[in-house]
Amino acid sequence: MLEITSRYGKSLSPSGARPDLAPGWIDRIDNPYLHGLFAPTTVEISAEALPVEGKLPRDLNGAYFRNGPNSRYAPKNRYHWFDGDGMIHAIWFEDGTARYANRWIKTWGMRKEHEAGEGIWPGVLGPFDFSLPGGPLKDTANTDLIVLDGKLLALWYESGRLYAIDPQTLQTQSIEDFDGRLKMRISAHSKTDPATGDFIFFGYGDRPPYMRYGVVRADGTIHRTEITLPGPRRPHDIGITPRYSVLHDFPVFFDPEFFKKTGKRVPLFHREVPTRYGVIPRLGTDDDVRWFEFEPCYMLHVVGCWEEGDEVVMIGCRTDDPTLKPDRRDGKIAAMLSGIKLQARLYEWRMNLATGATHERPLDDLNAEFPMINDAWLGRKNRYAYLQHIPHEIPATFEALVRYDLSDASHVRYDYGPGVFGSEAPFAARPGAAAEDDGYVLTFVTDTQDWSSRVLVFDAAHIAEGPIAQVKLPQRVPAGFHATWMPAT
Ligand SMILES: [Fe+2]
Do residues 274 and 251 lie in contact, with contact meaning Cβ atoms separated by under 8 Å? Predict the structure, then answer.
């Protein structure tokens, strides 16, 4: 077995024990995102009547789904955390009981690799090979999950197909392309307006048009427009309000000429270039976009976005200085690790549509990301958000659940405990709830001491008091990306 030399690799495996059910090929690769908390699992299982500590609320009925990378085959190039094949872990609650299952998302690329018996596509660290079938990257659908018109869809952050997943069995069913009318790739964090059922989407790419935006209306009609950007950009999210959408253009981008020559994307922070947010009417076109300039920064995820008088307000997890700062102690993977290290804090931007005035300010200093809200408030002024606190020393691990009150940016938190790390934690509304925080918050946690995993169920209004129930899972759940809640119908 190879000695894992990176500092983070060791710290993610404090007991030194190898995670169970991990593939043997990881032992040949010195990369912390294939080991410890991040080690892929090799099995798909289903389990019913799971043991519960405490009491599951009888009005918690529905499913908690979480997506994330879980490589099936050994990587073809230097592995990046974002490269793994999408796998969904799910827990279904019904009348005080719980069942669990996990399944890979059987993407087109994954099926091709299964036929070949090995990996075909290198990951995002490149170099890109444009002669590969379907393009230089495998659409893994590993990033996001959304519920649209009763369907569960898996999305990819690089812009990909919408993979429809059976919400009862997790079987990959089909590609949702709206009867062939969609005609474009969609980015993770495209979202559904809870009031109208409109699906508001965006996609981006390395070649022109660098961004597309659109809406699938509740009646099935599709609106789509190309968005003019000065070059290839890396937007990750979008803000929506009842009348507008907010498009993102951050000054973190790669040189297209260098990319053409080497096949490698090297994103750099251009601190002399402003951040731009483009406010577009929901059914607007490129000509309707009003761009507002702000201090240079980067942001992955929006916490809340709404209209307030003449202003569009957006709150997000802002990275003040996205400069890559490789640490020489991390050797060959130093650049990759520095890119994953999330340093984000709650921040507010305001755009006045009447005067053109802007205002921006930090709201708090805690390093916190992966925000979730009560989705019924999406696009409206929400007061509460549920985030993950990230310890500064270990990239992309979630140490505590944090509940923010956006009215004064105060927060309370629940620490998962030494060596225990959480997942993005969606909100599950109590049936008939009137208050924004009347419901539950759910998260998977994994204990790196013994590789056991549980689901914690919190009363959303009382996070700091700890979970009201815990469900013991039949296997380890590796660290992952985004999650969603689908209420039972
Ligand atoms: Fe994301």
Answer: yes
Give the position of tokens 């979480």.
66
What 3-state class would DSSP assign to 328? helix
Report the half-sphere exposure of 62 (CA within 13 A, side-chain side).
24
> Hey, how many other C-beta atoms are within 10 angstroms of the C-beta on 327?
14
Q: Are 446 and 478 in contact, with CB atoms under 8 Å apart?
A: yes
Distance CA 29, CA 336 (A): 15
How far is the centre of ligand 1, averaged over its atoms, from the C-alpha of 299 (Å)?
A: 10
- What is the value of pTM for the model shown? 0.96
Report CA(189)–ligand 1 centroid distance (Å).
7
> Whole-angstrom Cα distance, residue 34 to residue 212?
33
C-alpha dihedral (245, 221, 192, 175), degrees to nearest 10: -120
Answer for the pair 319, 342: CB distance below 8 angstroms, yes or no. Answer: yes
Tell me the CA–centroid distance for residue 370 and ligand 1, in Å. 7
Between the CA of 389 and the centroid of ligand 1 the distance, in Å, is 15
Q: How far, in Å, is the centroid of ligand 1 from the Cα of 482?
A: 7
Distance 157 CA to ligand 1 centre (A): 7
Percent helix, percent strand, percent coil in the chain, to nearest 5 = 10, 35, 50
Tell whether the torsion through CA atoms of 19, 21, 22 and 23 is positive or negative. positive
User: What token pair was written down for 470?
Assistant: 């815990």
Question: How many angstroms separate the alpha carbon of residue 47 from the centre of ligand 1?
Answer: 29
- What is the Å distance from ligand 1's center to 237 Cα? 7
Res 462: pLDDT: 98
pLDDT tens-digit profile of 336-362? 778 778 889 999 999 999 999 999 999
Q: Give the distance (Å) from ligand 1 centre to CA of residue 226.
A: 22
Distance 302 CA to ligand 1 centre (A): 9
Distance between Cα 203 and ligand 1 center (Å): 14
Ligand 1 centre from 155 Cα, in Å? 10
Q: What residues of the chain score a pLDDT lower than 50?
A: 10-11
Strand 368-372: give its sheet, edge to edge: 368-372, 384-389, 400-405, 410-415
